Amino acid sequence: MQPTEPENQPPKALRRGETILLLLPLFSVALGYGAMLPVLPDLLEQLHRGSPADALPLHAGLLTGIYVGAFVVAAPLWGRVTDRRGPRGVLLVGLVGYAASTLWLGTADSLAEGYASRLVAGAFASGLLPATAALIVSRCDEASRARHLGWMSAAAVAGFLVGPALTGAVHSIMAALPAWRDDALHLTAVPIWATAAVALLAALWVALKREPSRAAMARAKSAGGSEATDGPRSQGGLLILSALGAFGLGAFEVGLSLQSQRAWRFTPGELGWLFVTCSLVMLLIQALLFERLRNRLRSAWLVVGGFILMAAGFVAIASVSAFGAVAGLVALIAVGSGLLLPTLSVAIVEGAERAAGSATGYQNAAGNLGQATGSAVIGLLFIAVPHGSFAIIATTMAAAAVVAWILARLRGANLTGR
Questions:
Q1: Rounded Cα–Cα distance for residues 303 and 356 (Å)
Q2: Which residue has the higher pLDDT, 28 or 183?
Q3: 266-297 burial, b for 16+ CB within 10 Å, e for fewer?
Q4: DSSP string covering 91-145
Q5: CA of 22: how far to CAs of 210, 250, 322, 409, in Å?
Q6: Cα 101 to the chain's mean position, in Å?
Q7: 3-state class of 189 per DSSP?
Q8: What is the largest CA-CA distance in the chain?
Q9: Does domain 236-411 have CATH number 1.10.3380.30?
Q10: Could you report the per-residue pLDDT of 248-303, keeping only the tens digit for each?
């Protein structure tokens, strides 16, 4: 029989091992997203047999877009369910549903099945972020809450970083086996199934882990002291800033590839190292430096500074061509986004207090909408104004910094409105 928590004991910070396991669901979903990217062309060739070859890029964009679109619609709904029913059930259903739909993708034999499986996967995966945020709020005191919320972004970045490496390793092993060397289906599907297995392991941990007692969750919810919570309307400014930050990140990810194709002529390997640089910088910022910076600087200044760093990077990156200079500016943009996005996440959760799941769900939706919009807009800008595309994005980031400064004057330097 497991001991119960004393009724007067305040919520504590999680131990390191508990934190790693708590972030495993977010890591597993990001792992799946990153692992699918290298096999996406081969997957589409199998799924869209009989269709024109020039339609492949369109389907690649739509297959990714429908997954992101599911987050925009479903994340707020999962957030509400989390606040009403608790985070554990949402984590369990989300992981099992994501794993099942990922296995479905690995066995799909038509485009219709491919689109349906990605839509379902996104719908289930979208519940994991608000549920994880709510669980952190229920288990941590206010002093350690920001650190654990910041690690949520780090877990997602780490999963995205490891995903392509996992695909490469599994692909190499499968290609070396005589029975499957020429089996294109298995060479494509096995890496996808491997990520589903990781999600199922995460689901097993959630199923076996003891849920916090209702008393502990009630104490955590009342830790902020206020009965009222900031709903989506009162947090509209923070959601707009989240969308703008994700807009810049989406524009950056696509714009980097387009600029390389148009001007830099980097090899795929060099371009890959630029993306690795971006991911590693964001991971280091969010996992190691975020809490220290937030303890020394007000949230508003981290957000304003993050937008300014991104704007400066966008202004300069179009005028350089040496790989080292480009890598330095990529790191600068990564520092900016790595600071402002988790800072906004913490401000939204702290402002929401008792509705952490709903607040995180709305922010997740805003962020995914912003990222998808940024990816589309930069593509259009490279067609309409190819030499001014990054300057326009830089202007948008500078305008976002002004909006953040104005919001800080209205809500206070911590942006929570309290």
A1: 20
A2: 28
A3: beeeebeebbebbbebbbbbbbeebbeebeee
A4: HHHHHHHHHHHHHHHHH--SHHHHHHHHHHHHHHHTTHHHHHHHHHHHHS-HHHH
A5: 12, 27, 41, 35
A6: 19
A7: helix
A8: 67
A9: no
A10: 998 998 888 888 878 888 886 788 788 889 989 998 888 888 888 888 888 899 99
Lowest mean pLDDT among 9-13, 120-124, 160-164, 400-404: 9-13
**How many CB atoms sit inside 10 A of residue 337's CB?**
26
Q: How much is the pLDDT for 298?
A: 87
* Extents of the domains making up the chain: 16-221, 236-411
Shared fold status for 16-221 and 236-411? yes
- Domain 16-221 class, CATH top level: mainly alpha
Q: How many CB atoms lie within 10 A of CB 56?
A: 15
For 98, 156, 299, the CA distances from 93, given in Å and listed in that order, are 8, 19, 34
Query: How is the chain split among helix, strand and coil, in percent rounded to 5?
Result: 80, 0, 20
Cβ neighbours for 164, distance < 8 A, ≥ 6 positions apart: 34, 35, 37, 38
Please give the Cα distance from 129 to 127 (Å, whole number).
6
The CA distances from residue 287 to 72, 150, 162, 281, in Å, are 26, 7, 16, 10
Indicate the pTM of the whole model.
0.78
Cα atoms in the 13 Å half-sphere on the side-chain side of 302 = 28
